[in-house]
Amino acid sequence: MATEYCMRTVDFRPAPAGWRIVWLTDSGVDIAPMPGWIVREELECERGRSTGYRDVVATRVEDHGAEPISLGTDVNFWYVLGPGEPEPTLEAAAAERERRALRGIS
């Protein structure tokens, strides 16, 4: 039987002011402040034993708590902007939507 793995959140690190999350929309982008990063640890699900692997991922806050952000969990997620980075143009957003359409991501 194959071992199943799952991720457990072990820490949350607040983002300094200026970090933002960018999502693609039909007409452009939606940009929101990023609350921080979560540190996750990989476990063997059945045993609850750590594999030693950890990752750090950007988060968004939902009604039920902090959620990791990735293309795998939110197809509209585009990228994270750091403090002082310029926001994407409408042209850049249109080009990204076109790239995704060509790759079958929607």
Key terms:
four-stranded antiparallel beta sheet, 106 residues, single chain, 1 helix, mainly beta, three-stranded antiparallel beta sheet, globular
Description:
The protein is globular, with a radius of gyration of 16 Å. The chain is built from one helix and seven strands, in the order E-E-E-E-E-E-E-H. With 106 residues, it is mainly beta. The mean pLDDT is 89. It is 13% helix and 49% strand. The chain has one helix at 90-103; strands at 5-14, 20-24, 29-33, 36-44, 49-62, 65-68, 77-81. A four-stranded antiparallel β-sheet has the order 1-4-5-6, with no helix packed on it. The chain has one domain (5-103).
Q: Overall 3D geometry?
A: globular
Distance separating the two termini: 34 Å
Strand order of the largest sheet: 1-4-5-6
Mean pLDDT value:
89
Largest sheet: 4 strands, antiparallel
Query: Percentage of helical residues?
Result: 10-25%
Beta-strand content: over 45%
Structure summary, number of beta strands: 7
How many structural domains in the coordinates?
Answer: 1
Which stretches of 5+ consecutive residues score pLDDT under 50? none
In DSSP terms (H or I, runs of 4 or more residues), the helix count works out at 1
Rg (CA only): 16 Å
SS-based class: mainly beta
N-to-C SSE string, H for helix and E for strand: EEEEEEEH
